[in-house]
Amino acid sequence: MNPNVIKRNELLAQKVIKGLESRNMKGCYAANKEEALKIALDLIPEGSSVTMGGCMSAVEIGLVDAINSSDKYTFIDRAAMAPREALLAGYDADIFLTSANAMTEDGIMVNIDGNANRVSYIANGPKKVIVIVGMNKVCDDIDGAMKRARAVAAPTNAQRFGLETPCSKTGTCANCKSPDTICCQFLITRYSRHAGRINVILVNDSLGF
User: Fold this and answer.
1) What pairs with residue 201 in β-bridges?
2) 23 and 191 in contact (C-beta within 8 Å)?
3) For residue 83, what pLDDT is reported?
4) CA atoms within 13 A on the CB side of 131
5) What is the 3-class SS of the chain, one letter each residue?
6) pLDDT tens digits for the chain (209 residues)?
7) Torsion angle defined by CA atoms of residues 61, 203, 4 and 23, in that order, rounded to the nearest 10 degrees
8) Domains and CATH numbers, the chain
9) Other C-beta atoms within 10 Å of 43: how many?
10) Which residues contact 42 (CB under 8 A, 6 or more apart)?
11) CA atoms within 13 A on the CB side of 208
12) CA-based nearest residue to 163, from 114, 120, 119
């Protein structure tokens, strides 16, 4: 990565971290994927039950493989459970792994969801939330974050899931009401009442969608 980009990301991350702290959330900066993995594992106590949404960022830094390959944790595998059973088990988990569709420079997170399990877990439920965020997802303000979530993250995920939405076919948000839409719930996290519950790891890399 270009040294100028690295320096820019370092400085921008510090601004985001200050914003998160002002919102009763914790933030830290990882210089690379390997460092991000170490930080994330340090945040997960041995014996914890862990669940996750469709978090490609956690996959990309190797966190999902590390959890699955260790006997230190209990991984709640939603794919191996009935939907309702998985949903309820997730609410009771010690750790929830996720990312954000976008984040503002002053520490506000934006997420869009189809079934609401991900946004509901972020809002309430699991004891600790670990959010893996590539610096590619940091936007100037809330308007930019919402635009990124709808115009970049949603179409890409719709294509990934093979959904029959207008954005899946055109790559552009049509503000649709398609039966396949994944833009059902919007969560803006601007403050956490529970200190230390939400932990954001900003990674000096392009992660997720």
Assistant:
1) 28, 132
2) yes
3) 83
4) 31
5) CCHHHHHHHHHHHHHHHHHHHHCCCEEEEECCHHHHHHHHHHCCCCCCEEEECCCHHHHHCCHHHHHHCCCCCEECCHHHCCHHHHHHHHHCCCEEEECCCEEECCCCEEEEECCCHHHHHHHCCCCEEEEEEEHHHEECCHHHHHHHHHHHHHHHHHHHCCCCCHHHHHCCCCCCCCCCCCCCEEEEECCCCCCCCEEEEEECCCCCC
6) 888 888 999 999 999 999 999 999 999 999 999 999 999 999 999 999 999 988 999 999 999 999 999 999 999 988 888 888 988 999 999 999 999 999 999 999 999 999 899 999 999 999 999 999 999 999 999 999 999 999 999 999 999 999 999 999 999 999 999 999 999 999 999 999 999 999 999 999 999 99
7) 170
8) 3-203 (3.40.50.10420)
9) 16
10) none
11) 30
12) 114
Token pair in block for residue 194: 């529970």
Calpha distance 19→95 (Å, rounded): 23
